[in-house]
Amino acid sequence: MRILVFNAGSSSLKFGVFDTAGPADTTQAFKGSFERFRDGGCAYRFQCGENDESGTAPHADLPAAIAAVPGVLQTHDITGIQAVGHRIAHGGDGFDAPAHLDEETLARIEALTPLAPLHNPANLEAVRVARKVWPDLPQMGVFDTAFHLTNPARATTYAVPEPWRRAGLRRYGFHGTSHKYVAERAAQALGQPLQALRIISVHLGNGASVCAVNMGHSMDSSMGLTPLEGLVMGTRSGDVDPGAFGYLHRQMGLSIEAIEAALYSDSGLKGLTDSSDMRDVEERAAAGDAAAQLAINIYAYRARKYLGAYAAAMGGVDAVVFTGGIGENSASMRRRICDGLEFMGLRLDHDRNQAVRLQGREAPQIQALEARVAVIVTETAEQLQIAREVAAHLAAPRPVPGPIPVAVSGRHVHLSAEAVEALFGPGYSLTPGKPLRQPGNWAAKERVTIEGPKGRLERVAILGPLRGRTQIEVSRTDSFALGIDAPVRDSGQLSGTPRVRLIGPAGHFDTDGLIVAARHIHTNPEEAVAMGLADGQLVDVRIDGSERGLTFTRVLVRVQDGAFTEMHIDTDEANAAGIGPDCEGEVVPGLAAHPVDGTG
Predict the structure, then answer these.
(1) 129: which of 23, 411, 511, 536 is 20 to 30 A away, CA to CA?
(2) What is d(CA 497, CA 494) in angstroms, rounded to the nearest whole number?
(3) Distance from C-alpha of 280 to C-alpha of 288, rounded to nearest angstrom
(4) Are the C-beta atoms of 427 and 421 separated by less than 8 Å?
């Protein structure tokens, strides 16, 4: 599929044409930009194959530049566009996948303008012009915030009055397309599945953010309600005490609008040094400029704090990835950020750090040979990622409405052979009892106790057959009863999970593997095809047959030979929906489904 991608800003238009033959086979056929609109014209740059040209063009503004794109593509013999993808900065909490940009969707995005006043208006203007220029092509939006909608409530919730939270005050995170791409690129470079890694993605450019990518999902991001929160940036302040608004108003008579404008446009490196360009700041610091030296120390210190915080939040880190203009090009800034983190297994190799050369989307590793944590540098490729997501979304199967039985999964454990012997004695074999609906699975007649620092859960079911590693599945409420913070994980994703004590008649067994199981659907290949589902998809499931009918979002589809089709949720989720016996759900048709195979 050939896809035209737009990234429109208030003073620039970047665009590219991509050919997608599969998740790992996307190539760029054309790259273009129009920038610095002024005096009735702008600067342009076009790259097509070996040809690289630049100059000035008579386009006075963004709409004129977009309208000129068809002629530019025709001049360079770029034909056969099948879809148009658009970068949309803010999708709020309602867009966790690419969306068709029809009038209803555009109205929903426009309502989010107060959350991204500098970005969404330009994005929307590009969409409206493109719809007129290419009226017969699907126009798709890919949202910077979408990747971060997997962040748990503990990461997104501000401790503010409830009416404020109802009004939409929460953390969203940005740069999601970039963080998603570099995390996938890092996993590819390491030769490991993304779902097995804990990655900290560090995007350092004029805008800067850090993202904790835990087992394939964004867990936290340094940006918050707006792109102001977090790291020091080119012209943005990053983290500032919100009390500053009241203080500056009282002491300097500044309005909220003036303070906000200064935090966006006159702060960060610019506020500290009068320059927003890190290259200039580093040169001045080397020449003895004290303000520039302080700015560099603040910039690196803030980033280093986030690395430590996110390593702690994920229970460890396997890789740190640097991207963005500064992350890709400043060896000294990478060194400043990483120095002092040897205690967590992170250490750079001087020569490898100095010798980074990025061509052909390379992702060199620059950690010392004995370091436990990989450190990778790679160019971000947001437009390429947008093309991948648009292609995957348009090609994804669409769910067919139909009933899916909903099963409530109470707390239970899956034991290893080692655990069985520790709990029940040497040579003991569990006694299969009630067979479960999934073929070959059963509930044992034996029971165990789970013990945490706060309390115990008695007579917990054991499900067979045995596994190679013990896994304990509880609800969120159960985890509070135990006094242990259990993460939400897909089954089998146990790295970095907390330890807990299991107690049996012959003794106890201390083990990690305590999780709150992510909701999922089991099905077999035949019924998956009939329902329009694919292994690895995330879908939304509507539960209407209860007093508190609701929609469960991001339900993982697992397709296995011989599986019995049913959706599994835990007791907390069942209570929230008022679900009783013989309840059924229905996959929401249309745009609710999207793959999680690294393409979107």
Answers:
(1) 23
(2) 5
(3) 13
(4) yes
Q: CA–CA separation, 374 vs 197, rounded Å?
A: 11
How confident is the model over 71-99, as a mean pLDDT?
A: 94
Position 593 pLDDT exceeds 70: no
Active-site residue set = 144
Written as six digits, the tokens of 216 are: 């394939």
Question: By C-alpha distance, which of 33, 43, 46 is closest to 77?
Answer: 46
186/294 Cα distance (integer angstroms): 32
Q: Which residues are paired to 20 by β-bridges?
A: 26
What is Dmax (Cα atoms) for the chain?
A: 85
Q: What percent of the chain has pLDDT over 90?
A: 80
CA distances from 298 to 233, 245, 521 (A): 11, 21, 47
Q: Give residue 398's pLDDT.
A: 78
Helix axes 331-338, 290-314, angle to 10 degrees: 50
- Rounded to whole angstroms, the Cα distance separating 121 from 14 reads 16
Domains and CATH numbers, the chain: 2-143 (3.30.420.40), 179-384 (3.30.420.40), 396-600 (no CATH)
Residues in the chain: 600
| Plot region of 288 (φ>0 → left; ψ -120 to 50 → alpha; else → beta) | left
pTM assigned to the model: 0.88
Please give the pLDDT value at position 256.
95
In order of 272, 289, 454, 555, the CA distances from 284 in angstroms are 12, 5, 56, 52
Residue 384: closest CA among 130, 9, 14: 14
CB atoms near residue 113 (< 10 Å) = 15
Cis peptide before 465 (omega within 30 of 0): yes
Which ranges of 470-598 does DSSP label H, i.e. alpha helix? Answer: 476-482, 525-531, 571-577
- Kindly tell me if the per-residue pLDDT of 84 is higher than 90: yes
Contact 219, 173 (CB under 8 A): no
Query: Residues 413, 448: contact at Cβ < 8 Å?
Result: yes
Kindly give, in sequence order, each residue whose CB lies less than 8 Å from that of residue 162, ignoring residues fewer than 6 positions away: none
Q: What values do phi and psi take at 287, rounded to 5? A: -90, 0
Q: Judging by DSSP bridges, how do beta strands 432-435 and 537-543 pair with one another?
A: unpaired
- Chain centroid to CA 219: 7
In whole angstroms, what is the distance from residue 270 CA to residue 264 CA? 10
Distance CA 600, CA 205 (A): 24
Of 427, 505, 501, residue with least CA distance to 470: 501
